[in-house]
Design goal:
CATH class of the largest domain: Mainly Beta
Structural class: alpha+beta
Order of helices and strands: HEEEHEEE
Number of helices: 2
Strand order of the largest sheet: 1-2-3-5-4
Radius of gyration: 20 Å
């Protein structure tokens, strides 16, 4: 293969790799979308806990004053970070009663960044810095 042919083959391969990795890079976002000057306290029940990269997600169902429910989509750090805070895949189980303190999303009223979780047995997880 000529030098030009080798150069073009490498350029095509680099372009293909960049295109394949772009969705993963876009999926990992900053926490700038959350209002760190505000705190919301949510009393509810764990619906799901996804212990995953790049961010884990805790979904908490909160009962509203009118009897309806609101599902909060709450982000926190990935597994490698959460391990340092003694959080494991089975720490938050479906049906657990929890009180969570969050930084709300600036525009989405159902999304938040996790600060603290207190389980019904009193176990407390301070996760504001678990990013």
């Amino acid at each position: 293969m000529t030098r030009l042919g080798l150069f073009l083959a490498r350029a095509v391969l680099a372009g293909a790799l960049a295109g394949a990795l772009a969705p993963a890079a876009e999926a990992h976002h900053s926490l700038a979308a959350f209002d760190h000057t505000k705190q919301v306290v949510i009393d509810g029940v764990v619906k799901t806990f996804a212990f995953a990269n790049p961010h884990s997600k805790l979904v908490v169902v909160e009962k509203q004053p009118d009897g309806s429910t609101k599902d909060w989509q709450i982000e926190t750090g990935g597994p490698a970070v959460l391990f340092r805070y003694n959080v494991k895949a089975d720490t938050f189980a479906v049906g657990d009663r929890v009180t969570v303190t969050v930084h709300p999303h600036r525009t989405d009223t159902t999304s938040a960044a996790l600060m603290r979780v207190v389980k019904a047995d009193g176990a407390t997880f301070m996760l504001e810095n678990a990013k």
